[in-house]
Design brief:
Four copies of one chain form a homotetramer.
Chain A lengths: L6 H18 L8 E2 L2 E2 L1 H13 L18 H11 L5 H4 L6 H11 L2 H12 L5 E4 L17 E5 L2 E12 L6 E7 L5 E7 L5 E7 L10 E12 L3 E2 L5 H37 L1 E2 L2 E2 L4 H29 L5 H26 L10 H8 L9 H17 L1
Parallel strand pairs in A: 3-6
Antiparallel strand pairs in A: 1-2, 4-5, 5-9, 6-7, 7-10, 8-9, 11-12
């Protein structure tokens, strides 16, 4: 066992750290950061800066324009990127595009990659992942899928309604999960501007970090050709897993960066702000909170690194990525919450970035599997292991 | 010991509950509910409805147009009012006006009451409490007060800067805490439209339930006459305590109502929404969260009732109101957080009222004394008691 | 709502407090306090002292030699009694006798009461409640009952094995839950010295406060007459409920007293012991723990009082007593644990009484329904209420 | 970063695992396991078995009869050893001997090593570390040291009283921390059978895993020669740090093993025991607890490994070992506590090993620095880092 970063990892770490500090953080107050994420205009400006810095799409292979990092290097890189809410968007490693690119690279045909992956990796277009449905459809339980894909000659007719579709507004590519007539799930690639796709509305949401916000999207006799099938017919759930395990982990990496940002802001404030005769941070009650922040970030980071290593060995890492998701999502949330508390009035207002990160982060304990679903998966494996 | 509600309390409870359900909840999606609270227009409409229902200003004595409830009856009434984020505003029992009215009734001269309390109790004007200052001024530690009041003849010249002043925008009355030349603190009543008062800006904030939002206010040679002194010269901190102990408790009451709302929304969703073969609420993992919600609300309610009883005995209840503040603010927060979690995607979006309450509620663990300050007060009393 | 203690309650509170302080605490280091509870010899000595003080069997009606307290008065009395681990035994209000007496008084025939209740209430004999069975028998789920009662003529033949039977060693009365041939459960009263009853062994246990410890008891063709049936045939589970709801609450009362003892010992130590330049209790980190102790005890006490009031209204209080059990058992545990932590080395050794209470208390989160069973009961009720 | 175990580590892991399972666990119910730890007789028998298995004194260099493991290999080895409460004693890696040997090897003269280290490493003698004192002496704050060492000619006269001295009864070597006349602390090596050393008593304690228990030891004009000084005169606190940082970490390793044992026992029970129609472990409420156990053990293990790696780089690792201590001691405690809860009545009695581990483990959150002291150390470093 060895916790040393490679020279390349240390170099990337420093470069991203500097890029975020020098180039991205100054843009955080840009008025183009709206309730539904940075505007397309701002996003393109950010992408251009990252491209100039040679830091674009770190998870994509060089063949498609990225840096081709393995999971462990991503752990280092993405944490730095997450230090600003704008960082992942700038570096083109934000959800859902990052996971979509990963899945396309793993599963898509060469033709599909040229059409969708290449411009995605260049940050020219955005994508969305249309899986979650309104009640009584697919949520945490994907088997409840309601959207249908009926084969009509060479084409498929897709009908249904999706919900909480991040980034749909403004996306060019939609990856749509639908149920075949035989009940098996399949993913289709579609141009979001196709007739038959309608963005009903953009939802109000606690977070504001995802370009395009979260949308309700309906498919009304959307026609897609057989060439739009992603991978094999009927293998939709399997591919969702291919997407999910690493996508879940990259979420952890990015949010760890945001937690560290909160902690740094709170720590600096606590070192400076006086109350009751000494600096806030010299009060044990406050100091303990900051110590707990470091303990939480340490646990989150180590579990992320460990799972990244598992994935780099070629394993699926389902158990480990569930553990990392629960540990990291709950630990980073506590960090954000404590940072708000240490900051007091500063923490619940826009005076610092912390309130924004706090609001952005709440959904992290829910998406890519709520803590409860992961705990239940872990429990089922423990039960099975002990029932033999 | 007896936990029976009086017939009058039960009657008020039902009337407020019906009023909220029938009249206020339908207005929650009104577009006039903005980022900085309901508009003045909407507020006046809400007040009119409450007045028509005979439920206005329950904490103010009948002499000044209220219902004259004691603290225990307020506990019942305010919890029901809090069931909607708009409820306290409608019933004219929202912070900071509620606490300001309470303090005016306890301390102000007859003339001051006629000028300020009467229109406040009628919901015709709003008020703000100008105490908190930006770093390095008064926050949790009021002794760090920077704003000064210099006597010049019959007048006082007030200079300084306040921060996180809830409801300042649109308020008619400002209650300003300032330091005399001898260092003692004094409260002054001022018309917010006076020359010398400037609202620098309205702050971005996590919450959106307070009309007027939270503002930065500066005083630049504000002139007030001696008749504007609230109570005795130099007794500002004592009066702040008169305001704080009950104001802290009414916060607890209102937020308990909001927590119950979150819990009800989540419980109903959990009873209906299917996942993995049964209703969400039939999963122990979810059911336990809802059970914990009830345990938390029960503890919060009992500690509120207990402190209300202490206050009704004429005691200051400093120790008890600190306990109630910590218990209720932390318990209701956990309820809101669990409700978000149970609701999943619904919880982090505007699909239900829960996300809004969740955002509104975060500051409650901070204002009127953060949990840490109350714990420290309790600890000091424990230490003293055991050191004798 | 009113939290005032009656004059009688205040008087009893003071008398028990004095009795514990003056008479019982000095006996805590008595060598007759063994691993399986105080010896019968010590117990009789304690009972004699309580009798002399006029404080024996507070929960039993005066007709049978007790003080006839209602539930609310018991809440006050039992908390004081619990301030010493020996207090409940001395005052003859310890589990399981206290609950057994309560049930006998509610259900037994006059003849049964004379034979069993009267000497129990006088502290002359002890009793045990034989319900729990070893795997795969009745534990948290009473429906898994394995012990059988077969009617043979006028008699019943009882066969089975019980486990974790508190106080069996040395008990004169055994209340035995068994399953009839038709599957219904029934309770029988038996002399523990009957042929057919064998105490297999006394179990090692974390606690050492119950006279007789916890035993494994087997019934091998135990013969009991029909007159030994408690109440109606086949109503065993119903009566278990009659016993459980108040028995659960009296547990809460007694353990609250023990928690307060831990807190007092820790608070005094923290006020005296120096570390890093000031008293332990002047360190916020320690002071916050003591503050949390008071918050936890406050919540526990209020929920106990509330449930006692419910029971005094003649209600079963199943929901409320579940809430009180979870709140009180978890809160008092945290108090004991924090007190150990504050005391450091003193806390984990026999230097103070706290380590003993800590060990004694752990099982409280398990018996009379583990927290998980109560949470699930609460959850089912919430689900049902919201599914209508 | 790499989490791979070396072939040697995997081999040792398996060998220790087998040794514990086959040889040590069967002895756990040996009646020679008393309230103050295994008897000397049993200890020697255990040592003989470990020696035969070639697994003795893994942390000592081969030169002195050990396996010479680095910190990372110890992390693997000690966790396996800790799977039984008797394991560390058998393998001669239990506290306090293990830390004492480590310190002797690092600091002692060759002569001192031959006299003390060699027989210690062979398991022929035991040692104790005499640092902690009764109030008002040295506890968490070592600067409060009261025991004095006065130089008289070539000798030192030691006077004072120590407390909570683990293993003193039966120890041959005592390492005594005392204050010189100039106030500097120094460590002395003494034969515990020397005139002037008296073991006043063995304390009652929650734990029962340390041979010799915890004792009160007094020094009354104990005479030691200058050759008994460990290292340099006046450097006692520095050496205590040399001992503490790794000693703290080996504690974490061993206790992690014990936590895993608890979890395994509870998991197997949960997979088998039925309640309410299914296995306990199939209830989410129970399954979540077991999942949390795995999350906690994962975090503990990763933080231990990380700190071991830091120490293997030659760093002191003060910050990291503080983090590992807090994370591991609190996580393993939660694991033990949840395991008790899952086991119900089995958990609070001697029916399984879990109750014993639970009692043994409580002190771990206190010794080698209570969580509060570590949090405060972390906080001070955070403050300093942010104040620059």
């Amino acid at each position: 066992m060895d916790f040393t970063l490679t020279a390349e990892q240390r170099d990337l770490q420093q470069r991203v750290r500097d890029f975020i500090a020098d180039t991205i953080i100054p843009l955080e107050q840009d008025p183009r950061c709206g309730a539904h994420g940075p505007s397309e205009d701002l996003r393109r400006e950010l992408i251009a800066k990252a491209k100039a810095a040679g830091l674009l799409s770190a998870h994509v292979s060089p063949e498609y324009g990225g840096l081709g990092l393995d999971h462990r290097s991503k752990a280092v890189f993405f944490e730095e990127a997450g230090y600003s809410p704008l960082g992942p968007v700038a570096l083109n490693i934000a959800a859902p595009d990052e996971g979509n690119m990963h899945m396309l690279e793993a599963i898509a045909t060469e033709e599909q990659k040229e059409r969708w992956l290449r411009p995605l990796a260049a940050g020219e277009i955005r994508s969305c992942f249309c899986m979650t449905e309104p009640d009584p459809g697919a949520g945490s339980d994907p088997s409840m899928l309601q959207t249908t894909a009926r084969q009509v000659g060479d084409e498929f007719l897709i009908n249904g309604r999706k919900w909480f579709i991040t980034g749909a507004e403004g996306a060019t590519l939609g990856i749509i999960m639908a149920k075949l007539e035989d009940g098996r799930a399949t993913m289709f690639l579609a141009d979001m501007n196709s007739p038959g796709i309608r963005i009903e509305r953009t939802m109000d949401a606690l977070d504001s970090c995802f370009p395009g916000g979260h949308c309700v999207v309906s498919f009304d006799n959307l026609r897609v050709p057989a060439s739009a099938i992603l991978g094999e017919l009927g293998e939709g759930f399997k591919y969702a897993q291919v997407r999910l395990s690493p996508a879940r982990l990259t979420h952890c990496m990015r949010w760890l960066g945001q937690a560290r940002r909160c902690h740094d802001v709170a720590s600096r404030y606590a070192a400076r702000r006086m109350a009751f005769g000494k600096a806030l941070g010299q009060h044990e009650g406050v100091g303990f909170m900051l110590a707990d922040n470091e303990l939480d970030m340490h646990s989150a980071r180590l579990s992320i690194w460990h799972t990244a290593w598992i994935l780099d060995q070629g394993h699926l890492g389902t158990h480990e990525s569930s553990m990392a998701k629960v540990i990291a999502s709950e630990a980073t949330w506590r960090v954000a919450d404590r940072s708000v508390q240490v900051l007091g009035g500063q923490g619940v207002t826009g005076e610092t970035i912390v309130a924004r990160i706090f609001s952005d982060m709440r959904a992290f304990r829910i998406y890519d599997g709520p803590s409860e679903v992961h705990r239940w998966s872990l429990a089922k494996r423990i039960f099975k292991r002990n029932s033999a």
